[in-house]
Amino acid sequence: MKITTAAMAALGVFIAVQAGAQDQEPASSRSRDTALSAPYNGPMMGPRPGEPTPPPPPGPRPPDVVARGPSIELALEAAKAVVTSCKGYQVGIAVLDAAGLPKLYYVPDGTAGSHAYTGFRKANSALLIGAPSEQITTRIATDKGLADKVAASTNYASWAGGLPIMVNGEVIGAIGVSGAEPSEKDEACARDGLREIQSRLK
């Protein structure tokens, strides 16, 4: 088979074009290789295509809203005075602020933590009615709304041992004591604890 001069020339052009094409890799391939060979500078910034833009980081946390109540120093001092008054008993003490939130749980060594929880329930009852916790039984007998509220929660107790903490006629919290026998002894110890700090309450 004879190849004409024109055909040979055309074949040469074709070979040259093919050689040039092999020297020029597709842009996508070059970009991929460049990305893979680039130094690692941490995770990619920003969302991937199609992903939602994440929200900006939150600002500074606002300060807590704190209800009125005894300071932690006075709450601790009252709890220690209760333990001294109730010497010989394993008592737990709970001190609440005006919102009914715990300011202090005090559980001496050798005392079950359940006493502090019962103390919380007594204190919560005293806070609810603004009077010693054992009076809640009399109150709910004549106040259906109060009775329904107490019945709907396990966070109240009608035993003696819970007292409101008052300053100038205003209830600013409550203290509850549990673990002594009878429960009237819990209340007597709670009164001793309050007496220790009453003049310094604000």
Helices and strands in order, then pairings?
Blueprint: H1 5-23, H2 27-37, H3 72-85, E1 92-97, E2 102-106, H4 114-129, H5 136-142, H6 144-151, E3 162-167, E4 170-178, H7 183-197
Antiparallel strand pairs: 1-2, 1-4, 3-4
InterPro entries: GlcG_carb_metab_protein, PduO/GlcC-like, PduO/GlcC-like_sf
Region (Disordered): 21-67
Signal peptide: 1-21
Give a quick summary of the entry:
The chain has 202 residues and is of the alpha+beta class. It is 45% helix and 13% strand. Residues 1-21 form the signal peptide.
Give a written overview of the molecule.
The protein has 202 residues and is of the alpha+beta class. The chain has a domain at 72-200: Haem-degrading domain (Beta-Lactamase, 2-Layer Sandwich), CATH 3.30.450. The chain contains seven helices and four strands, in the order αααββαααββα. The protein has helices at residues 5-23, 27-37, 72-85, 114-129, 136-142, 144-151, 183-197; strands spanning 92-97, 102-106, 162-167, 170-178. The protein has a four-stranded antiparallel β-sheet with strand order 2-1-4-3. α3 (72-85) packs across α7 and α5 crosses α6. The longest helix is centred in the N-terminal third of the chain and has 19 residues, at 5-23. The chain is globular and about 70 Å long. Residues 28-37 have low confidence and may be disordered.
